[in-house]
Specification:
With 364 residues, the protein is an alpha+beta fold. It has a domain of 143 residues: Cupredoxins -  blue copper proteins (Immunoglobulin-like). 19% of the residues lie in helices and 37% in strands. Bound molecules: copper (II) ion. Copper (II) ion binds next to loops.
Length: 364
């Protein structure tokens, strides 16, 4: 812990020294991070809980069209692939993913030379049902060898490591396995050096819905988790991949976010209907920092670690912390709450101030 703190402190000092042309300077000028101290202090002296609202933010707008993905669309644009039934009556779900090098705008005016799955960071949020046969065709149109390593159950030859689905530029591989266990999972490149390949943007959500037929004791809970059912449609579901970006390649992140674009959900809050429950598929892929976290203001949630149970593993908490690749499902409700803006953010305040800070806009 002391080493980690020490590293952060020396990083801050070197940034301060390099301020005139350093990273913060570059972000401050190009991306327009500002600190409206007067607003913050006004709020503080009034003792209002909105004090965080006066913290750092960005000015200007990211061009989501040019990026080819919009942070609000990323919340719910599940990639469901093509479903067929094979000769044995088994459901087969087929996906296609292509790796592409692509510059993406992660804060207004701040570009990151990403490696992407399907041109977006995070990659497509793959969604399947427990027990289905997954067939994923992966083509590498990028400049380096890449793979897709799934967090799930599969054979050694499908693991996405060297000799098991590592794909040279211009080549392709088909990964096949059964979607299990149900839960909130992820996939990422497993090429070496691993931290560079992951951090460049090669990761995404892999959500496996429980098959209600396999969970007769908890059928209602399973139905509510299965995309496409009336029970599921009642929920306001969304996926958030917590990530960070090392914009100057010094193995430290300068920008943090949920779903890549700094402060995207602060500038344009996520609208929530107070009468419907909320479910968040939360995944941490942040490289270089030991943990990331999610803190919800003014409310509490139940948490399902890895999403692999239908009963909460944590009840009535307002913060969870996750190491890299750890993930889970959050369930909560704003029913009966006063309409307004409810903040959520990493409770590493540094991450919050560098982009991972957001709002729910709760409406009646
Ligand atoms: Cu890679």
């Amino acid at each position: 812990m002391l080493d980690w703190l020490q590293r952060k402190i020396s990083r801050r000092q070197s940034l301060a020294k390099a301020g005139r042309l350093g990273v913060i300077g570059a972000i401050g000028a190009a991306a327009g991070f500002v600190n409206p101290a007067s607003a913050a202090s006004r709020a503080a002296t009034k003792g209002r809980k909105t004090m965080h609202g006066g913290a750092n933010r960005t000015v200007g707008r990211v061009d989501h069209k040019r990026n080819g993905f919009d942070p609000h669309a990323l919340l719910t644009d599940w990639e469901r692939g093509e479903v067929t039934t094979d000769a044995d009556g088994k459901r087969v779900r087929e996906f296609e993913i292509v790796a592409l090098d692509k510059d993406i705008e992660i804060a207004p005016g701040l570009f990151f030379p990403a490696w992407t799955y399907n041109g977006r960071v995070p990659g497509p949020a793959l969604r399947a049902t427990e027990g289905e046969h997954i067939r994923l065709r992966f083509r590498n149109a990028g400049s380096h060898p890449h793979s897709i390593h799934f967090h799930g159950i599969h054979g050694a030859s499908m693991d996405g490591i060297e000799g098991a689905g590592m794909v040279e530029p211009g080549d392709e591989f088909i990964y096949e396995f059964t979607a299990e266990p149900f839960g909130c999972h992820l996939y990422h490149c497993h090429a070496i050096p691993l931290k560079r390949h992951i951090h460049k943007g090669l990761y995404g959500a892999f959500i496996v819905d429980p098959d209600p037929g396999r969970h007769p004791e908890q059928r209602e809970a399973a139905l509510s988790r299965q995309l496409g059912t009336a029970e599921n449609a009642h929920w306001q579901e969304m996926v958030m991949v917590m990530n960070g970006f090392d914009t100057n390649f010094d193995d430290e992140n300068e920008v943090y976010a949920a779903n890549t674009v700094a402060f995207a959900y602060m500038l344009d809050p996520i609208v929530i209907e107070s009468g419907r429950p909320v479910r968040i598929y939360l995944i941490n892929v942040t490289e270089f920092d030991p943990i990331n976290s999610f803190h919800l203001h003014a409310n509490f949630f139940n948490y399902f670690d890895h999403g692999t149970t239908l009963e909460p593993t944590l009840r009535t908490v307002d913060t969870v912390m996750l190491c890299q690749a750890q993930r889970g499902i959050l369930e909560f409700s704003f029913e009966g709450f006063e309409p307004g803006r409810y903040m959520f953010h990493a409770h590493q305040t540094e991450f919050a101030e560098l982009g991972w800070m957001s709002f729910f806009e709760v409406r009646a």
